[in-house]
Amino acid sequence: MAWGRVAGFFGLAFVLTWMWWVPAALVERGTVPVELPWIVLMIPGGLGPAVAAVICSSRRMGGPGVRPFLRYAFRWRAAPRFHLAATAGMAVLVLGTVPVQLLAGASWDGAGAVSGLAAFPFLLVFTFVLGGGIDEELGWHGFALPHLQERLPVWAANLLLGVVWSLWHLPLWWNPAVGQHDSNYPLYVVSTTGFAVLLGWLYNSTGGNVLVIVTAHTFANLAYGLQAAAIDPVYQWIDAVVMGGGGLLALAVTRGRLGAPPSAEPPTDRSAGSRGLPSTTRGSAAAAPDSGDPVRCDAAKTLFVERGSDDTSVDERRAQGRRSRNLRTRAASPLPVVGRRNSSKS
Fold first, then answer.
1. Gap between the Cα atoms of 169 and 161, Å rounded
2. What confidence tier does 301 reach under pLDDT thresholds 50, 70, 90?
């Protein structure tokens, strides 16, 4: 896949988001005298990466097609340990900083913690779909990361994605209605890049399971929200040290491979790669539906490529399948082929 397709996705994601978020900031600042709730503009803007991924995956844009892309992205099966890491692991990583925050001088707000827990069920659904889950990760890890890892070392692809992801959020610092407005942007870049590296490890370890990444992003955002409700102030530098340090630790432990198998190579099927299929990365396996095993991953990739990029008609594929079954049946039968042919005519 050409670099132009990755750049095109990033550019489209930025445009589709900033065209909503910049006006939202101007409205909140009073620069644009319009009485409009800021959330009305923020939600459509958050869908920018997902919409950009769908557009870039379409056949008109040289992709595999929208349906194959969505079928590839919305696979949910993965080993239980990865679902545990995406849920409890992310919650512990964020909320585990609360004692440190309190020791650093933050105050505990019990009522805020209770209200945050009470809102958890609603926020879980909202965040999973529109608060950083599907709306973002369908683009960042469903489309961008697998293609970046085809062209770059795994560690470089994930670091680059983290930086671009941080830049994409920049209009939030112009909007006084959102929490990021008063936060330190360089520290945010450190946290987000470290978070991207951890998500990259989950992505590669699960064979490219995007829904595990959606879940991890959702629980991390919910944990940050609960943290902000329970303590005041939140010392951002502590969060940056923990999340950034977690990313560095993952890079060090995996020697930069982040869960990708050492023997994996860039895809050799050029026709499939040119159509933008989320294929095996440089050092990562294509996604298997229920494990991160490289053998199963390669088989899943082959199946996906055949189903997603084959231009033959459905009837032709069915005919090919019937011919293959007939050949296997004849090879396995103890009867002579002529005898079987004659018996079928009688």
1. 13
2. very low
Say what the pTM is. Answer: 0.77
Task: State the pLDDT at residue 65.
Answer: 87
Alpha helices in 104-263 (DSSP H): 110-118, 120-130, 134-139, 145-151, 154-168, 185-205, 210-230, 236-253
CB-based contact 11:162 (threshold 8 Å): no
CB-count exposure of residue 206 (10 Å: 0-12, 13-18, 19+): buried
CA dihedral for 336, 340, 342, 343, sign (positive or negative) = positive
Distances (CA, A) of 340 to 72, 78, 211, 321: 41, 45, 49, 20
Q: Which two tokens stand for residue 82?
A: 């990865």
Q: Do residues 72 and 63 touch, judged by C-beta distance below 8 A?
A: no
Specify the 3-state DSSP secondary structure of 281.
strand
Structural domain containing residue 76: 3-308
Tell me, yes or no, whether 177 lies in a domain. yes
User: Residue 300 pLDDT more than 50?
Assistant: no
- Which structure tokens are listed for 11? 């550019």
Indicate the SS3 state at residue 136: helix
Tell me, yes or no, whether 231 lies in a domain: yes
Six-digit token string for 305: 């490529």
How would you class 81 by CB atoms within 10 Å of its CB: exposed for 0-12, middle for 13-18, buried for 19 or more? exposed
Q: How large is the angle between the packed helices 48-57 and 66-73, nearest 10 degrees?
A: 130
* Residue 328 maps to a domain: no
Tell me the mean pLDDT in the region 159-181.
95
Cα 208 to Cα 93, 104, 203, 261, distances in angstroms: 22, 38, 5, 12
In a domain, 171, yes or no: yes
Say what the alpha-carbon torsion angle 232, 130, 151, 200 is, to the nearest 10 degrees. 50
- Amino acid making up residue 44: P
Contact predicate 258/197, CB 8 Å:
yes
Domain count, the chain: 1
Q: How many residues does the chain have?
A: 346
Q: How far apart are CA 64 and CA 87, in angstroms?
A: 31
